[in-house]
Every structure is written in structure tokens, then in C-alpha cells.
Write a structure and sequence with these properties.
single chain, 19 helices
């Protein structure tokens, strides 16, 4: 049990530590093992002032022997939230299966490597209470160091958005920090052509089980609209040379969506440059503009990139996900008439070269993925910056907006060939997609033994959440435009199911077992239909805490809710609102989803179904290119994402205000492999 001295400056306890062993470090070098061991060792930890010391045994500390390891807490030390952790024990049982045990952990991370030559330290405890006590103590020490150093706490304070099993992280602190948000740990690794390149910390990448992302962020001396038009005009920057990447818009789907072909040749040493085949990615690009004026452009890997690569001849399929944000100045830094004459452009890209270079493979030890894409990424970024700079002048030395390849050059001829090949290939794929496109099915389900659908989704993947930090329209919002802190939802989360259907499927409520088993209870059913194949559906059911108050009383919430469930689809689309919030996720996912309230019926197609004891909302995410792109991006990282979805109806008159939340759904690191397959037969 941790002990605290009278001065409240020393804590002592037996803890777990996950050390990198020499043997595993050697194996990880050849891609045969993870570098960080999953089996912890016991150490006796002592926190004295700002120094954390580890001893092999408590006796060593009592005998005043020097510690085995020490870590110095600094103002920039980051402290994660407490989380449960399953670890394998040292022995194997006769059946050949490893046994497991549970502990409670949190991590400390530093900008620079510490005495053990690592940036981070994971500390484990047998009980959650001990972990929370140590966590709070270390967090208070770091806060004190920040205050003593006179640093900007809004920049250093940790905005905890980790999932906590018992309790909800508050969003209020994030709101008080004037929009600052936690986006993980980044380190400057290179300086290329006057541009600094940052790399995502290995700890964050290991947690996400993905390749470390790269980031470039730079001030552009131009307004956000001008910079956005330069970025979105992809074809203006396409060029073809022997050692340059090639970018081509091969399909203009609509105003907000394009399909893009990008080639990344190897740009390392000269010898390998001739031997290494060029990588090709096929990405869908979509854009939106948030309410604060920020432009967000998303690039998500196309699911048919492998088939597409076969049509290009000799190119190896790679995977790429990226996000570009173009943020205007804060109001107090703008010129007259609220004009933002500058903006901050940030590009984050995660690239996996594929082929023999999968993450953890032996070739990746020799050749870094940066050799394929980083120089091209920087060149593209600089071309945007240069064009923005030159647009401010009366006379320009050259027109960057046109291709730099001469019409009579060999490069131009190759470019024309690539254009024809890529256009033909993408048209073939899109034609095939249109032929296979499936409309939502009306089906009869094969009943289970219980007489209704029940996926029995593990409760660890879903829960409700508190309303801390959320704001909704107040009673006098129409006059003063003031939003007030939201009260707790009036509906409880009853259950969440995850299904895999053969085709997009609507109106599932009549087949759910709880609808059949509880005819006197009212259910608010939300179905999120993920674009497929495979066709996953998340079905969440909410029930009123007080049925009389929610459905039959003369309150603003009840009046608005009755209007919603008994009104027309047009009425429902006008008031149904969703507030998303990424509790935990990468920078790309956070920017993709955002946290702006949306009248969802005006963004995507929603099918409403009214039954005797339920109302069902089927979200056809595939009906919106932007929404489908976001969901595909998030679906690829569901095991590392924790997201809250807050459902409510928007009040348009004093009789319908203040707004109140219907319910909150939290999906925590959802594993799509846990979906129950549903066998159906056509009517």
C-alpha cells in the first residue's frame, strides 16, 4: 500500500514495470518480437519531490543503497489517465496457453529520452485505488513545476481524453483553454528545404498499432480561402519527372469529393532507386469548412487500391491516410472587417509502403518509409506556400499553377500515358462499383433461439457518458444566443449491438429481442449503417428514465420530442441534432470527426420508422461522400478510438427551449470483428 509522509512529499509502493529486455531488443531488430515486453517485473518505487526512483527490492531502499533507475519529473512531463491492462504471466500451462492477469496502469512521457534511453515509462499497480493515488500525486507535482517555472499552463496542461472505466473525462477544461486540444506527442526529426518535419511519438504509434505519422505545420501569408483553393486544385501541381512524385485527379465525383492517383517513387540512395518499384496510392479526398472558418481536407485510402494497382502495371499498392487543416487567425489577431490575412496550414500523413515493407518486417529495418513519401510531401507543401506567397505580388517570375513538364518532353509523353491508364482504370472500377451497388434491403430475419436479434456485444466496447463540458441552447437563446451547460440525458442507454449484414439493412427494430420482450417500454433506436462491404451496423437503444415526463408531460423537451416522433420526415430532419466528440484518437481522426453540432438530416439520408413502442433512426452514411470518407477513416482505427455521440433535438422557439439531451453513446475501441453475422432471407 502506498505510504505518504507527513510532509506529503514522499510516496512508496511496490509497482510493476515493463522493461525492454536485451533479448527482445535483438529479436525486435529482425522483426520477430515487440521491443517492449508484455511481462512486468516488480520494483519498489519511491517518489521524493520531483524524482521518481526504482529499487530492485524494498530492502535496498531501507538500507539507503543507490536506486537502480531514476526519472526526473519536469514541466513537460505528460501523465496519461489510469487504464486497465491485461498482461501475460511468466509461465506456460501444460495446454500451451499463456495465463493472464489484470493490473491498473498509467504512463509518463518526456520530450527527451530518460536514464533508461526511452521517452516513456508505464507504471502498474494491483489495485485501481493505488494507481489513482499515485497518478494524482505525480500530476500535482508536474502542475507545481509548471507554476514554478512560470510557463503557459494552457499549452502544457494535459487535456485528458483517455477512456476511464469508472467516470467520464470532462470536456469543460478543454473549452476553458480557448480551443487548445491534445493531439499527442510530436518530435522534430528533420529540416527539409526550410520546413520542419515532426514525427508522432513511438508510444502513440505503438498504442495505435500503426506506422508513425509525419506532420508539417507552417504559417501561410494568405487568407484561408485562397490557400484552400490552392490545395484543392490538385491538378495544378501534378508533375512527372524521373525522381518526382506524380499526382493526378482521375475522377471528379462532386464538388466536395475527388478520387486521386498518387505515385511515390523511392527517393533514397541511387542504387536502390533503380531497383525499387514505385508505390501507388488511390485515395478519396473530401473537404468541409467548420463553423470557425477552418477548412478540413481528408485523404482516406481507397478500399480497391490493390485491384487498381494491378491495372497500372508494375506499381506496388501502398496505403495512405492524411488530413490537411487550414485555420484562420483568432478574432483578436485579424485585420479590420474580421479579415484573416494569414492562416496556419497543417498536414499530417501516415504512409505504409506495402509490398515487402510492412510494419515490423526485416526490409523496414534497412529502409525507412520516409524514403518513399517524405520528400514528396515536403515538396508539395512548399509548392503551396510558394504559390500563396507569389500571389501577393504584381509581377511573378513564373506561373506555378501550370505543370512544369514541357509538352515536347519525354516526361510529358509519359504523363499523358499515365493519365490515360489511370483514367481508364478508375472508370473501370467505378463502373464495377455502380453495377454492384446495393440498395437498402427489406428482409425477414431468421429468428434466433430467443426470438429476436441480440449480438451480445461485450460491454467493454460501449457505455453511456456524462454531459460534462457539453453546451446546449438556453431558454433565451433566440434573444441572447447564449448556450448553457447541458444537463444529464433524459434517456438511459439500454443496449448496443453490432451486426454484419449481407447488404445495407433498414428498420431492424421489429426484430430486436428487447422490442418484443418489453411492449410497455418505449425505445429510441439509432442505427449507424457503415458503408460496405462488409456492411456493419451499430444499433443503440435508449429508454426514458421517466416515461411520463419524457413523452406525455407539458415540458419543452416533451413537446419537442412528441413533434419529432409523430411528425413528418421533413420535420424530423429540421430538428435532429448530433454532437460528436473524440475522447481518444489520433490527430487525423480528431480533425476528421470534429466536435461541431450538426443537423444530421441535412447532411446525410436518415430513414425514420415509427412503431408502437419505438422510433428508429437509420443513418445511411454512404449517402454522403464526406460522411462515408470520415467513417472509413475511423473504421480503420476503431480499436484505438473512443468516441462520444450525443443525440438531441434542436429547439426553434421559446416553447422548445432550453434544449435537453436525449442520450449519449460512447463507443470505446470497438472491435468490428466482434460483429454478429445475421443471415437473412428475402421476403
Amino acid at each position: 500500500t502506498p505510504q505518504t509522509s507527513a510532509m506529503a512529499t514522499t510516496m512508496e509502493s511496490v509497482v510493476y514495470r515493463w522493461p525492454p529486455s536485451t533479448a527482445r531488443s535483438v529479436l525486435s531488430t529482425v522483426g520477430l518480437a515487440r521491443k517492449i515486453s508484455s511481462v512486468p517485473v516488480e520494483r519498489f518505487a519511491v517518489l521524493r519531490g520531483s524524482v521518481l526512483a526504482y529499487y530492485h527490492h524494498e530492502e535496498s531502499y531501507r538500507e539507503e543503497k543507490p536506486p537502480a533507475r531514476t526519472w526526473e519529473l519536469v514541466p513537460h512531463t505528460k501523465v496519461s489517465e489510469v487504464f486497465p491492462y491485461n498482461y501475460g504471466k511468466g509461465g506456460w500451462n501444460p495446454l500451451g496457453e499463456r495465463t493472464h492477469s489484470m493490473c491498473w496502469c498509467f504512463t509518463l512521457s518526456w520530450p527527451k529520452k530518460q536514464s533508461d534511453n526511452h521517452h516513456s515509462l508505464q507504471i502498474g499497480f494491483d489495485s485501481e485505488e493505488d494507481a489513482e493515488r499515485w497518478h494524482d500525486k505525480i500530476e500535482s507535482v508536474v502542475s507545481r513545476l509548471i507554476d514554478e517555472a512560470g510557463l503557459n499552463t494552457s499549452m502544457l496542461k494535459k487535456v485528458n481524453r483517455e477512456y476511464t472505466p469508472q467516470g467520464t473525462p470532462t470536456r469543460e477544461s478543454a473549452a476553458e483553454e480557448d480551443g487548445d486540444e491534445e493531439v499527442g506527442t510530436w518530435y522534430a526529426v528533420k529540416h527539409i528545404n526550410g520546413v520542419r518535419v515532426f514525427m508522432e511519438s513511438e508510444e502513440d504509434a505503438l498504442r495505435a498499432k500503426e506506422e508513425s505519422a509525419r506532420m508539417i505545420s507552417c504559417v501561410m501569408r494568405g487568407d484561408p480561402q485562397t490557400v484552400f483553393e490552392s490545395v484543392w486544385n490538385f491538378e495544378s501541381y501534378s508533375h512527372m519527372k524521373s525522381n518526382a512524385s506524380f499526382l493526378k485527379v482521375v475522377k471528379q465525383v462532386d464538388e466536395h469529393r475527388r478520387v486521386i492517383h498518387v505515385q511515390f517513387p523511392y527517393r533514397g540512395s541511387g542504387l536502390l532507386r533503380r531497383m525499387m518499384p514505385t508505390r501507388v496510392v488511390l485515395v478519396e479526398a473530401t473537404w468541409r469548412q467548420d463553423c470557425d472558418g477552418t477548412f478540413v481536407i481528408l485523404f482516406s485510402n481507397h478500399h480497391q487500391v490493390n485491384q487498381y494497382a494491378k491495372t497500372t502495371g508494375g506499381l506496388v499498392p501502398a496505403r495512405m491516410n492524411a488530413a490537411v487543416t487550414i485555420a484562420p487567425l483568432k478574432p483578436n489577431f485579424r485585420l479590420k472587417n474580421n479579415y484573416s490575412h494569414e492562416c496556419l496550414m497543417t498536414v499530417v500523413m501516415r504512409f505504409e509502403p506495402g509490398g515487402w515493407f510492412e510494419t515490423g518486417s526485416i526490409p523496414r529495418i534497412i529502409i525507412n518509409a520516409d524514403s518513399f513519401f517524405l520528400q514528396s510531401m515536403v515538396d508539395w507543401f512548399i509548392s503551396i506556400r510558394e504559390r500563396t506567397e507569389q500571389e501577393r505580388f504584381v509581377s511573378k517570375p513564373l506561373n506555378i499553377a501550370v505543370t512544369s513538364v514541357a509538352a515536347d518532353s519525354a516526361g510529358y509523353k509519359v504523363e499523358q500515358i499515365v493519365k490515360r491508364v489511370t483514367s481508364t482504370a478508375i472508370n473501370t472500377l467505378l463502373t464495377s462499383q455502380r453495377q454492384k451497388k446495393e440498395e437498402p434491403s427489406k428482409v425477414t430475419y431468421e429468428p434466433s433461439a430467443s426470438g429476436g436479434l441480440n449480438s451480445r456485444l461485450d460491454h467493454k466496447f460501449w457505455s453511456s457518458a456524462g454531459a460534462d463540458g457539453l453546451k446546449v441552447r438556453g431558454k433565451n437563446y433566440l434573444q441572447d444566443r447564449v448556450k448553457i451547460p447541458a444537463a444529464d440525458p433524459l434517456f438511459d442507454l439500454h443496449r448496443v449491438d453490432l451486426f454484419e449484414f449481407p447488404s445495407p439493412t433498414e428498420h431492424v427494430a421489429p426484430c430486436m429481442d428487447y422490442i418484443k420482450d418489453n411492449p410497455d417500454q418505449f425505445f429510441y433506436v439509432v442505427q449507424l449503417m457503415v458503408p460496405g462491404p462488409p456492411h456493419y451496423s451499430v444499433v443503440a437503444a435508449f429508454t426514458p428514465k421517466d416515461k411520463q415526463e419524457c413523452l406525455h408531460s407539458d415540458t419543452p423537451f416533451s413537446r419537442l420530442f412528441r413533434k419529432f416522433i409523430d411528425g413528418t420526415d421533413e420535420d424530423r430532419n429540421d430538428v435532429y441534432k448530433l454532437i460528436p466528440h473524440i475522447v481518444e484518437g489520433s490527430w487525423i481522426v480528431q480533425k476528421a470527426v470534429g466536435n461541431t453540432p450538426a443537423i444530421l438530416g441535412k447532411k446525410i439520408r436518415i430513414a425514420y420508422h415509427r412503431g408502437e413502442n419505438y422510433v428508429e433512426l437509420d443513418h445511411d452514411i454512404a449517402s454522403s461522400a464526406m460522411a462515408a470518407n470520415i467513417v472509413r477513416l475511423v473504421a480503420g482505427a476503431t480499436k484505438t478510438v473512443c468516441v462520444d455521440m450525443c443525440f438531441l433535438n434542436e429547439g426553434h422557439s421559446e416553447e422548445e427551449l432550453p434544449e435537453q439531451l436525449i442520450g449519449i453513446l460512447r463507443l470505446n475501441r470497438l472491435n468490428l470483428a466482434a460483429a454478429q453475422r445475421v443471415h437473412m432471407k428475402l421476403e
